[in-house]
Design brief:
41% of the residues lie in helices and 17% in strands. By secondary structure, it is an alpha/beta fold. The longest helix is centred in the N-terminal third of the chain and has 21 residues. Bound molecules: 4'-deoxy-4'-aminopyridoxal-5'-phosphate. Catalyzes the removal of elemental sulfur and selenium atoms from L-cysteine, L-cystine, L-selenocysteine, and L-selenocystine to produce L-alanine.
Length: 405
Amino acid sequence: MLDIQKIRQDFPILNEVINGKPLVYFDNAATTQKPLPVLNALTRYYEHFNANIHRGIHHLAEKATSAFEASRHKIQTFLNARHVEEIIFTYGTTDGINLVAQSYGRTFLKAGDEIIISTMEHHSNIVPWQMLCEEKGCVLRVIPINDEGELLMDEYEKMLSEKTKFVSVVHVSNALGTINPVAEIIEKAHAVGAKVLIDGAQASSHIDINVQALDCDFYVFSLHKLYGPTGMGALYGKKDILNAMPPYRGGGEMIKEVTFAKTTYSDLPYKFEAGTPNIADVVAAYTAVEYVETLGKKQIADYEHELLVYGTDALQSIDGLRLVGTAKEKVSVISFVMDGIHPQDVGVILDQQGIAVRTGHHCTQPLMQRLGIPGTSRASFAVYNTKEEIDKLVVGLERVKKMLS
Ligand code: PMP
């Protein structure tokens, strides 16, 4: 059993007072808060071994390099990747998807090839593919969903053909919390010879990820949704595929030799890591992953599920409130709308009570169009949240109703 009160002490920000009220932070799907070990790792790096990595031979450069590379090993284990060089550091999920769309997509996809995404994608898993389609003449196809917010797998199967060259879908929806059957999606895509990218931005903090068991070709996530720093993420790619892909960005670090006549590129993973990376945040990512591993993914998921069940029951009992996204397989994300009240007003009034939720389209405008709503209010729970905080949300929402309906 997790000691939630003890865990809360690891997160200094939870002591903040917002508008005279103790902070209730329910915007974890946007970004999680950071525990002291992660904050300390950042400070320790800058205080004790800040240096540029890989090229220096002095003590600090060696120390920074080994901490940076230790993080790569940590993430390799976290995802169960076969080879450490299959882990590429990025600026986050968005950056990882753009890397694949630009490097793999521009090289291996051609006019008429089909790329499949789904209705519930985040804009960062739509726009890079649209840009590619515009440039190369590929065709974007979209898996529809049912009213509960689940993918229509029959429709997906019907879409697959020898024209399908790439499938890019979200593991867990940020707007609805739906957990998608990604293993099945991958298997079916592979059966027609397509490559698959999984957007794991929301999955990494809730679900055990095993890229070898999934057999995905690419997996991307952001550390800031996993109790780690912002502006830092990782792309996993199968080694043979990454090796066949050209570099995404050119510059220092990613080269073997540069002459004005010709440049040769570094081996994996450095081929994809041009320029000075986000060293401090990569170093602190080690600690974020370690923090999650120490608590235990399964324990975190079980506790969050308890919050999800409790929160779903509590919110459902509010008259005039409708849940959006009621998939059978869900993580601890509750999206909802209230009769006659704009989501933004819900957010503003809750904020006055110190409660942080996200409102709007959650970077999933096509999904909102499919659901026929402009947006939702979304409460998303992390391991440090409590049932008492959910009770406060219920009181807050009753107040919203009293003030606005
Ligand atoms: N995909 C999903 C499902 C997300 O929730 C997010 C972040 N909201 C992203 C992609 C983009 O992540 P980032 O902004 O860290 O690049």
